[in-house]
């Protein structure tokens, strides 16, 4: 099992670079320097993400009798998010570096130990300039840092207040230097040692104004980009219940965008400001809540295995008391071994009657369920498996990425990059490759095969370069099957004199083995393998 802190930054760098060069994921607005925390999916990334969402929907909605889908609006009513607690409490503690002005998540700063140098101000004798302002710097003597580092940092800090920019920071004199020994402090920026501001709560929601209200302070004109898809499910639960005449237990599933003004977007798409969620709110009788939470955990773990994330790379964190939301009697985090550490993919939370209860209180409308058999009225409890779509795409990419050594004994060095996506999520299912591009009969036959498959799956036609190079290009983007059209396809005898007309060579991405399949059987053969 990997250590929680085990990371492989080099692998992550290669993955990010491959994502860009092959058209999986690009930085949003890269042309203009990038929009921090936002990402655009390129042609292959879009297919991969669509495939993931399709498998999730098929497994959770189409193949189940007890779950219905919905697609709520992205703009959320302020009253919905006030009732849910997001307006008052959806925040992260934030602090600012006094020197660089970088904004940091206070709860993500690693504790540090060292000597803190404190100053009361600085002056410049020649010009008569002086300032009284406390400032501190932490240095780590075990990392060869000494008082000179502290003094240099402090001078840079005070130099920000100089109106005469001709005065170099090193010309300043520091005032009132004292020191203290600090153990496990989180008050200093690990990047430069500068003192941080006290943590403040920062609401993560993006607020906007609806309509053309002339009053800038009209509270009814305020709307939010939803911070999770879940709330529209809770507020539509009664409509779904009444219009679909379902009985408990039943779920409502939704895939869609969510927005959070994250203080520190990081680790590629892992923590973004705009992302997609795949959420289910599963409504049940109170006595079934805990049992169903356990069942959902298993169901969700199997899902990840099915799409190509092995169980050995998944970790289940049973979130301890005190770290769970106060209304949740049980919460599991499903975590994955990303190259940047073990991190959350999905939460499976037993939320009790909290959400429906809050919306009932705030709206003044009953959200009770009437059980026809027992004649009871009650607010259903909820189990919520809430997955991140972009995080799962990232896990699929990290899991698929492999560099295979193909160097033969005594031979020259050879390796191939191969994305070992499960065929169900692979962006391109099959590549159609005529052996030669200057033989019209081969090209015509290959186009025929392309037209045969295109209505059923995403295929790619490629006639440029030697066939071996074309295979490698497909390996790099994870195409599970390459279909070569050669002279035997056109009727030339096979190596043992056999008739191979109207058959093609199918080359398997992972084993690189090849087999001959007749064109008439090709479509069902592929359909069986790409679901
Ligand atoms: N309705 C419950 C809810 O939203 P959450 O743990 O805040 O719970 C659920 O989010 C999932 O959404 C997370 O497990 C993660 O996969 C994804 N997610 C949350 N914040 C994200 C972000 N900033 N960037 C990408 N994915 C995010």
TrEMBL record:
It is an enzyme of class 6 (ligase). Residues 170-423 form the Aminoacyl-transfer RNA synthetases class-II family profile domain. Gene3D superfamilies: Anticodon-binding domain (3.40.50.800), Bira Bifunctional Protein, Domain 2 (3.30.930.10). CDD domains: GlyRS-like_core (cd00774), GlyRS_anticodon (cd00858). One of its GO terms (molecular function) is glycine-tRNA ligase activity. Its EC number is 6.1.1.14. Transmembrane segments: none annotated. InterPro entries: aa-tRNA-synt_IIb, aa-tRNA-synth_II, aa-tRNA-synth_II/BPL/LPL, Anticodon-bd, Anticodon-bd_dom_sf, Gly-tRNA_synthase/POLG2, GlyRS-like_core, tRNA-synt_gly. Keywords: Aminoacyl-tRNA synthetase, ATP-binding, Cytoplasm, Ligase, Nucleotide-binding, Protein biosynthesis. Pfam families: HGTP_anticodon, tRNA-synt_2b. Belongs to the class-II aminoacyl-tRNA synthetase family. This is glycine--tRNA ligase. It comes from Rubritalea spongiae.
């Amino acid at each position: 099992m990997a250590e929680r802190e085990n990371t492989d930054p080099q692998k992550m760098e290669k993955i990010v670079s491959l994502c860009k060069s092959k058209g999986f994921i690009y930085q949003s607005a890269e042309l203009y320097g990038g929009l921090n925390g936002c990402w655009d999916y390129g042609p292959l990334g879009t297919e991969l993400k669509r495939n993931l969402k399709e498998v999730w929907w098929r497994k959770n909605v189409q193949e189940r009798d007890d779950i219905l889908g919905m697609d709520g609006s992205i703009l959320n009513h302020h009253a919905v998010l006030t009732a849910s607690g997001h307006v008052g409490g959806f925040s992260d503690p934030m602090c600012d570096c006094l020197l660089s002005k970088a904004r940091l998540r206070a709860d993500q700063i690693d504790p540090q130990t060292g000597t803190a140098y404190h100053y009361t101000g600085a002056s410049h004798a020649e010009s008569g300039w002086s300032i009284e302002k406390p400032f501190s710097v932490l240095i780590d003597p075990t990392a060869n840092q000494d008082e000179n580092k502290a003094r240099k940092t402090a001078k840079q800090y005070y130099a920000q207040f100089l109106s005469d920019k001709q005065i170099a920071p090193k010309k300043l004199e520091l005032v009132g230097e004292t020191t203290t020994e600090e153990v496990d402090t989180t008050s200093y920026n690990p990047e430069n040692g500068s003192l941080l501001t006290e943590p403040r709560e920062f609401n993560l929601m993006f607020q906007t104004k609806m309509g053309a209200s002339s009053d800038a302070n009209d509270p009814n004109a305020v709307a939010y980009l939803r911070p999770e898809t879940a709330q529209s499910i809770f507020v539509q639960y009664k409509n779904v219940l009444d219009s679909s005449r379902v009985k408990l237990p039943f779920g409502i599933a939704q895939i869609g965008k969510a927005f959070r003004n994250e203080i520190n977007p990081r680790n590629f798409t892992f923590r973004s400001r705009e992302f997609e969620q795949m959420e289910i709110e599963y409504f049940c009788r109170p006595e079934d809540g805990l049992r169903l939470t356990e069942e959902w955990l298993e169901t969700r773990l199997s899902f990840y295995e099915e799409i190509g994330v092995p169980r050995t790379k998944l970790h289940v964190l049973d979130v301890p008391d005190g770290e769970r939301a106060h209304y949740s009697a049980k919460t599991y985090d499903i975590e994955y071994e990303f190259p940047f550490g073990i991190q959350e993919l999905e939460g499976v939370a037993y939320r009790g009657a909290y959400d429906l209860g809050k919306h009932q209180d705030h709206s003044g409308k009953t959200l009770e369920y009437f059980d026809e058999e027992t004649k009871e009225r009650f607010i259903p409890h909820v189990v919520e498996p809430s997955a991140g779509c972009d995080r799962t795409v990232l896990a699929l990419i990290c899991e698929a990425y492999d560099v295979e050594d193909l160097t033969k004994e005594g031979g020259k060095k050879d390796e191939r990059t191969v994305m070992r996506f499960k065929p169900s999520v692979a962006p391109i299912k099959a590549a159609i490759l005529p052996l030669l591009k200057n033989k019209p009969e081969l090209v015509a036959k290959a186009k025929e095969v392309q037209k045969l498959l295109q209505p059923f799956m995403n295929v790619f036609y490629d006639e440029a370069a030697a066939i071996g190079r074309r295979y490698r290009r497909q390996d790099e983007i994870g195409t599970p099957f390459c279909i070569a059209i050669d002279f035997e396809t056109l009727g030339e005898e096979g190596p043992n004199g056999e008739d191979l007309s109207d058959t093609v060579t199918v080359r398997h991405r992972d084993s690189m083995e090849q087999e001959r399949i007749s064109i008439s059987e090709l479509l069902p053969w592929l359909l069986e393998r790409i679901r």
